[in-house]
Every structure is written in C-alpha cells, then in structure tokens.
Write a structure and sequence with these properties.
alpha/beta, 45% helix, 153 residues, 5 helices, single chain, 4 strands
C-alpha cells in the first residue's frame, strides 16, 4: 500500500470546489494557526477565495453542528474541521474529542461529504504549538485530506 505523505503531495486543481472550514475559537492561538495553514493549502490547490466558507464555533464540541450548518446551507464539496482539545486533569477532553469525532464521522457518512479531522488532542500546550507551526501544521494535512477526498469522489 502506498502511503501519502501530506505536505509533500502534489497539488491538485481544486478550483471548482467549494470548501467549508469549521474552526473552534477555543485555544484560538492554536486553532487560528491551523486555519492559516488550511487557507494557505487551499490557495496552493487553487481553491477560489469566494468558494471558501469559514464558520467559527465556540469549542470542539460545537464543530459537528457547525459542519451540519455548512452542509445544509452552503452545500460544500468538502469540509475541514479544526480545533484543539487539550488534556486536562479530568476526562472532559476525552468526552469532547470522542463526541466531536463521532459527530464528524456520522455527518460525513450520512451526507457523502468528506470532512477531514483537523482537531488536535495533545497532552500539553507545547505539543499543540508544535502541531500548529509551519511544516508541522496539521491544518495543512487536514486541508490536503479534504481536497484529496473531494477530488476523488
């Protein structure tokens, strides 16, 4: 099986796609960096600015509902979900991450729209910062995954 290394994948022509991005504003220093990485990737793949819809939501738990709103009202070809759920002293982070991932998966399967999972679940803020910087930016990977899936439907 050929494994794709995201960030090194050949850029496709996604100029005909409409792409939604749902980004959590909780831990915004991290999530907005992920958003910048995703937007740069969409630009490299030639997605038109007018075909990009960004929906901000309060936190990770609200990401699936933000995706549903985009699906119902904007009908995108793909959605990129971006968030950061940090490990805490309780299991709260596990419940939020599980709910978000299950909700995203259900929406993707129900509506037949690729929704990439760009929600970080690090143990520390430093791990989150590393995963939202430059070449390590997981927003790039999430955008490439969504575009790849949309172009190969």
């Amino acid at each position: 099986m050929r494994r794709v290394q995201y960030g090194k994948e050949k850029k496709g022509d996604a100029s005909r796609l409409t792409v939604g991005i749902v980004v959590s504003d909780y831990n915004s220093d991290i999530t907005h960096a992920l958003l910048r990485g995703a937007l740069q990737t969409l630009s490299r793949w030639k997605v038109r600015k007018e075909n990009i819809i960004v929906r901000h939501v309060p936190g990770g738990f609200e990401i699936p509902f933000g995706c549903l709103q985009l699906i119902r009202f904007k009908k995108p070809d793909a959605i990129i979900s971006l968030g950061c759920i940090l490990k805490g002293e309780t299991k709260h982070d596990e419940y939020i991450a599980s709910a978000a991932s299950q909700g995203i998966m259900r929406l993707s399967l129900k509506y037949g729209i690729p929704i990439s999972f760009g929600i970080l679940t690090p143990n520390t803020i430093e791990q989150a910062r590393i995963r939202s910087r430059d070449k390590e930016n997981k927003g790039i990977e999430a955008a490439e995954a969504a575009l790849t899936m949309a172009l190969h439907k």
